[in-house]
Every structure is written in C-alpha cells, then in structure tokens.
Amino acid sequence: MNKLYRLLILSSVVFSLFSCDKEDSLSDESVVTIEQRTQNELDVWIYENLTLPYNVEVKYTWDDGEVENEFHVTPPKVEKAKQFLEAYLNVWIKTYDDEAIAGGNPDFLKKYMPKQLVLVGSPQFNGDGTMTLGLAEGGKKVTIFNINEFANVIINDWNTAEEILEKKRDAIFMAFHTMHHEFAHIMHQTKFYPDEFKEICKVDYTGNWMDVFPDVAQLKGFITPYSMLNENEDFVEIVAAMLDQVKNSNEPKLYTTQLKDDQGNLTLDEGDVYLSQWEWTIYSWGFKSVLDTTTWRYHLKQSAEAREGYDKFVAKVDIVTSYYKEKWGIDLYSLQKRIETAVNTLIQ
C-alpha cells in the first residue's frame, strides 16, 4: 500500500513538473472556437427595418436554447422567414404604430412590443394532441412556430386571379392570429382588464376545450373552443379574432338575409344589410338553417341558448374594445381597417 501511495505521489510530481515546464510554450490563440456567421441579405434587412427603428432582435437561425428540448422542431427556411418578417413589419408593426399615434399614444409600440422575436419553422406538437403556434414570455419575447407554412395556399388550375388573391389574403389574416393573440397577453399582463369580464362566462371555462366543437363554444359565448380554457385566453382570443376577421372593414359587403327586430331577435323578414366580416360574425352568431315543413323552405333560426351566448359574447366584446381604447388609445375597429388595407397592399 505504501509503495503504491509513493508511486502515485511521484506520478503527480512528475506531471506537475511537466505541466510547469510546458506553461511557457502555451499558444496565444484560444482553443475555444466560436462559430462566426457571415451576415446575409436577410440579416441586413432585419437590422435596417426592425432592429434599428424598433429595437427588435430577430432569431431565425437554429438556437436550441430558445426552444424546449423535449419538443422536436425545425428552423425556418430563410425565404419563409423573410416573407413572414416583411408581413410582420407592414401588417403588424406599422398598423399598430399608426393606430397608436392616431390615438395619442405615439410611444406605445416602441415601449410595449416584444423586443425579441424567435421564429421556428415547424409547429410544436404537444403530448395532449394539440399544437402550439405561439408563445409569449414575460412581455419581452414572442416565439412564432410553423413559419415554413406561412401564407401557403393551395392553388388549383380553375382558380381565378381574384380567387387566388382571396386565398392569399385569408392566409395572411389567419397567420397573424397568433401574433395578435400573444401581444394581447402582453397588454393584459401590463394593465389588467376589468374583473367583470371574468364573471360573464366563468362557469364554462374548461381544461377540456379541445373536446368542444366550435358551434357548441358559440352557444356558450366563446369565439373559439380554445378561448374556453380560462378568462385570459378568452380575452386574447377575442382580440385576435377581431384582428384576423377584418375583410370588408373598409367597404362593408352586402348580405341578403333575415332581419332582426329592435330587440335583436331574428325575424322571418328578409332584407339587405351591409356588414364587415367581423360584423357578420356577430350578426349571424348561433344561426342554424332549419326546414319549415309547412312551406318546405329553409330559414335561419337563433335558439334561446344561442341568443344567450350571443348576449354574453357581445358584452365581452364591449369590455375588450373599451379596454383597448381607454388603456392604450387603440381603436380595434379602426385597427381592423388598417390591417385590411395593409394586407391588400402586400398581396398585390
């Protein structure tokens, strides 16, 4: 044992002497290498259009520190990242900025917009079968998934030029639902919305929202099944829906339909109404087509349950729009018009 102990000490001494002897010949160059990436055209565009004017950092190259390691996701293609970011600047940033300036809050966007934007190419698939398309963290960072499918549409040989434009228009509107949703979280986390909002549908919030069909959610006063998760998701889904259903905001569309009386009840009288896409969503809330066996004609019907859901939803919309106007100087209906104009310009 003593012999072994002495050998170990001797070995340590020899190693120490060797190490000291070699110290003088260490290289001045670090053995740690840091990957250097040459800036490409997109990097320059990001700096000039997002970082310099709005102080926004954009990450689109792979960084496993920005995503949960338990999920299998992929980075975005450069061309899809560029396509999304151009739309992000014109459809999201500039519209909010112009509306806030018009509402007397010129520093709104620069102060509250997320300062870091992370782009991920694929969706994040969760263990419960759902799919995450966006995340907001602490008001400073937003992660947007599924960038590689941004604004992708299926175009058939028989589609007219106008039909193709309509498909592209719808795809961009819907793609920014996630961005509107996540930014609305930042808004209500910064300034709380009225508690009365939480009371309107409090008995119907559920963790099993994924098992609810959209028409059933409407009957209970919700714009989407996901908005049934809790009051915060309910609030931001209303904002996101208002800002992705903006068609005909500038020029209302003609609908020939059954009219409502002064109390808002659906009658059998038909007539013409001019409504935006969002206004039609509210007007037609809970409508069902039923067959009148006396005339053998179909007509629309709004059940008592659907009317109750309608009243709940309209009450929530009033709170949401008042909150944005009073707390932030943002008129959501005016913002709808700006977004529609921006999208139409982008796809031309």
Automatic annotation (TrEMBL):
Matching entries from InterPro entries are given as: LP_HExxH_w_TonB
Could you tell me what this protein is called?
Substrate import-associated zinc metallohydrolase lipoprotein
Superkingdom of this protein's organism: Bacteria
For this protein, the record's Pfam families field holds: Peptidase_Mx1
Q: Which Gene3D superfamilies does the UniProt entry name for this protein?
A: 3.40.390.70
Q: Supply the NCBIfam families for this chain.
A: LP_HExxH_w_tonB
